[in-house]
Every structure is written in C-alpha cells, then in structure tokens.
Amino acid sequence: VQLQASGGGLVQAGGSLRLSCVVSRNILSINAMYWYRQAPGKQRELVASIASGGSTSYADSVKGRFTISRDNAKNAFYLQMNSLKPEDTAVYYCNIRPGWASYWGQGTQVTVSS
C-alpha cells in the first residue's frame, strides 16, 4: 500500500492550503484515516482523523481552522487548512491503519510565514 501526499508549500499567515493523500488501494473498508504533523525539534502529533462514517476529530490547536474529508471514489482524503499560523509550520504526513498495519505517506512540507 502506498500513500502519496501533496499540496504543501509556502504561504503567508492567514492563508490557506489543501493537502491531498492518494491511497493505492480501495479505502472504502478503511475505518479511519489520519493527518499528522511534525515540526522541527518536536514529536509527531495527530492533527485530524476521519472515520468511515464521516465523523471527524481534530487537535485543539486546529479546531475551527482545519477540515478533514475523504473521497472514497478517488481513494483519497484531504486536509483543508485555513487561517494558517506560523506555528502550523511542519511536515504533514497522512496515515491509514487497515487492520494491524500502518501506512504512511512521504510527508509534505507546510511553511507559514509571519
């Protein structure tokens, strides 16, 4: 299983970016999918998750600004990031856990300038 993350870049504070994660298999049966991020010198942290039924969960630091979504027909899920802040600067990783396995995308860099 391969995950291809894309959509990162350099943006000014207050701007928006949309991250995409395309999965090389059918995602319909995958219960939940995740976006993580890791800033320099910090541990990787969970940013958002979405379940197969569409329920979502967010880190407190991004609630109201980020939206996770999934498109089962395209085998993809997304992270819409609005009102970006310099502290959102990190490498963002997508992750799925079908069964006991865990698969990661390669990461996409998001840099927010002040």
Folded structure, characterized:
This protein is mainly β. Helices cover 0% and strands 52% of the residues. Strands 2, 4, 5, 6, 9, 10 and 11 form a seven-stranded mixed sheet that branches. A four-stranded antiparallel sheet has the order 1-3-8-7, with no helix packed on it. The termini are far apart.
How much of the polypeptide forms β-strand, as a percent range? over 45%
Q: What gyration radius follows from the Cα positions, in whole Å? A: 13 Å
Query: If helices are DSSP runs of H or I spanning 4 or more residues, what is the number of helices?
Result: 0
- Order of secondary-structure elements: EEEEEEEEEEE
Poorly predicted sequence stretches spanning 5 or more consecutive residues: none
Shape: globular
Average per-residue pLDDT, rounded, comes to 96
* Count of individual beta strands: 11
State the major sheet.
7 strands, mixed
